[in-house]
Write a structure and sequence with these properties.
Elements (H helix, E strand, L loop, with lengths): L9 H20 L14 E10 L8 E11 L3 E4 L2 E8 L3 E10 L21 E12 L2 E10 L7 E8 L2 E3 L2 E12 L1 H8 L3 H7 L9 E13 L4 E11 L2 H4 L10 E12 L1
Antiparallel strand pairs: 1-2, 1-13, 2-3, 3-4, 4-5, 5-6, 6-7, 7-8, 8-10, 9-10, 10-11, 11-12, 12-13
């Protein structure tokens, strides 16, 4: 049976029910009228440099250069590493299907000792549904997604509070939330198989599902009408299921990502 068709864990099923109930309530309250496509939507294209300090017991952090793309015309959107299409968007309620790059990377060549004999872990692609309800004090977003790249065959779910602050040329987006990972997802990124254990001498490890808090802040600053700078900082706190992995550096309870970018507006 494929990952999309297998029975979902309780936490994932509950989040799916939440998405359904919220959209159902909004439909009962008033007729849904989606926003028209915005012909003046701005396309911003550029490049981002990201530094990730992973929780793995490796030397230093990982630098990567990623394309930067931002666009939203009320029908489709691009936000950095996330791309989506709106199913419902009336300005207050947004339900969309999305795909994004996610996960961590572990390169055995950067590890020492027995960890150098483990298999490589790579970024993956997630696809799922996202629901956002805007309020006068911010937005509440619920998401559910599954691994479509075949790395882990796992699923994740998130609940996030988002805010937006604008001051002239500067816009800041703080957010805070919790992320649930199922056991398959955690197994790929933090587990050690029996085969790896036999090869390296490390103990085998099979984590279960987990719930972890995270906080993020991102911002954009318009240098000119055409050029803008982008910055983002995210901290994810490891759950005990993740931290107890032999792959994790002792006393390292966080996964942090720092991103700096430059964008050109068309």
């Amino acid at each position: 049976m494929t990952p999309l068709l297998r029975p979902l864990p309780l936490a994932t099923a509950l989040l799916g029910s939440l998405l359904f109930s919220m959209t159902g309530l909004s439909a009962q309250a008033a007729p849904i009228k989606n926003l028209p496509a915005d012909p003046d939507a701005v396309l911003s294209v550029g490049a981002n440099i990201r530094y990730e300090k992973t929780p793995y017991n490796t030397d230093g952090g990982d630098f990567s250069v990623l394309p930067g793309l931002f666009y939203d015309n009320n029908k489709v959107y691009a936000r950095g590493n996330t791309f989506g299409a709106y199913i419902l968007n009336d300005g207050t309620h947004q339900l969309d299907a999305f795909a994004q790059i996610a996960g961590n990377s572990f390169d055995p060549e950067d590890a020492e000792g027995a960890l150098a004999g483990l298999d490589e872990r790579k970024w993956t692609g997630l696809a799922g549904l996202s629901y956002l309800q805007r309020t006068p004090i911010g937005g509440l977003r619920a998401q559910i997604a599954t691994d479509i790249a075949g790395r882990s065959d796992g699923s994740v779910a998130r609940l996030t509070y988002l805010a937006k602050f604008t001051d002239d040329k500067l816009t800041v987006y703080p957010s805070i939330g919790v992320e649930w990972n199922d056991s398959n997802y955690n197994e790929y990124y933090y587990g050690i198989s029996d085969e790896e254990a036999a090869r390296t001498g490390l103990p085998s490890y099979s984590p279960g599902s987990s719930l972890s808090p995270y906080v993020s802040v991102s911002g954009m600053y318009d240098f000119t009408d055409k050029w803008a700078g982008f910055a983002s900082q995210t901290f994810d706190h490891l759950s005990s299921e993740q931290y107890d992995s032999p792959m994790v550096k002792p006393d390292n309870h966080f996964d942090s990502k720092t991103t700096l970018g430059l964008l050109y507006k068309f």
